[in-house]
Write a structure and sequence with these properties.
By secondary structure, this protein is α/β, with parallel strands linked by helices. The protein is built from 13 helices and ten strands. Strand 1 and strand 2 form a beta hairpin. Helix 5 packs antiparallel against helix 6 and helix 6 packs parallel to helix 11.
Length: 330
């Protein structure tokens, strides 16, 4: 991955995504984002500049992550003042939602430490449509404009091609999809949940309708509800769940199970669908469109995965390895 060139401009001014004028240090060498949303995007854009991580890298993920990210200090929130003072990044990225763009607690911490901060704003914190603008802003912030432009353009192209396919599918031919969370599959997300964002882009195919009450989601459901939904397709957190339901006579009454349309969600180095809702959703769009509309979106998903990992993670992977990632066998 090409490194970001530093921008040695004294007192450089930038307008952040909340419209604030921010004076940055002469040279930015390190950056911190106090959430998984910002951290993951930075991990794809300028990993060598990240000062700390909100969660340690899993061993299975390290193969796909820049070496700088393997053993970073762990700081889960911007409000961990002492830990943040130790790493003292040159700039802090506050990841925010369009509906609530300002975080007063985060601002107070940054001000107390004398660290400049900028807002990166994305709808529902993880809406793919807003990723290109976020990439371009962060690229300007860190001096990575050229790389950010490539990542943003790939995202826009993916959105355009998938949207074109979905718009051609009559509503009556769009499959009903159930998102099976937790090991037993008895938790899911309402159709307006930030965690189920890709379902809306697939033609609003989520079978579980309602309003998300809390940010965390994970709405409990009964097996009887799933029976009533009788989804055409199930996507699941857990590969073991997928194996188990295929052998369970009760679950075999569900259309998706009976027709062998139950799929584990690829999840290295981050989940392709959710938790965290991150840049991996871009390849997740291609994956989901191919699963739901295989005849209309007949892409070579293995090749698409190889290209995506090369671009966003600077990682060349074989076709065999791409296949294992897609099947959640890594």
């Amino acid at each position: 991955m090409e490194s970001c060139e530093k921008t040695p401009v004294s007192g450089r001014e930038i307008i952040d995504m909340a419209g604030r004028k921010v004076i940055l240090p002469e040279t930015i060498n390190s950056v911190f984002a106090g959430s998984f949303y910002g951290y993951t995007m930075l991990a794809s854009l300028a990993p060598e500049m990240i000062a700390a991580t909100p969660m340690p890298a899993r061993e299975c993920d390290k193969r796909y992550l820049h070496p700088h990210l393997h053993d970073l200090p762990v700081i889960e929130k911007i409000t961990e003042v002492d830990a943040l003072a130790k790493v003292k990044p040159d700039v802090i990225v506050v990841w925010a939602d369009k509906e609530q763009p300002f975080h007063k607690k985060s601002e107070a911490v940054c001000d107390s430490l004398g660290i400049p901060f900028v807002y990166a704003i994305v709808g529902n914190l993880g809406d793919v449509e807003d990723f290109p603008a976020a990439y371009e802003f962060l690229g300007k912030l860190l001096g990575c404009e050229a790389r950010a432009a490539r990542l943003a353009e790939y995202c826009r192209e993916t959105l355009a091609e998938v949207t074109t396919v979905v718009d051609r599918i009559p509503e009556r031919l769009r499959p009903g999809v159930y998102y099976a969370e937790c090991e037993n599959g008895l938790a899911t997300e309402f159709d307006d949940s930030l965690h189920a964002h890709l379902f809306r882009l697939m033609g609003d195919v989520n079978v579980h309708r309602g309003h998300i009450a809390e940010h965390k989601g994970l709405e409990p459901v009964t097996f009887e509800q799933i029976e009533a939904y009788n989804p055409d397709v199930i996507i699941a957190w857990s590969r073991s769940f997928v194996k188990n339901v295929m052998l369970d006579p009760r679950w075999n009454e569900i259309r998706a199970v009976r027709n062998h349309r139950v799929y584990p969600i690829p999840n290295v180095p981050f989940n392709w669908f959710d938790r965290p809702p991150c840049f991996m959703r871009i390849i997740g769009l291609k994956w989901l469109a191919h699963l739901l509309y295989p005849n209309d979106y007949a892409v070579d998903l293995v090749k698409e995965t190889q290209q995506f990992y090369a671009l966003y993670l600077d990682k060349e992977i074989s076709a065999e390895e791409a296949g294992r990632i897609i099947a959640q066998e890594t």
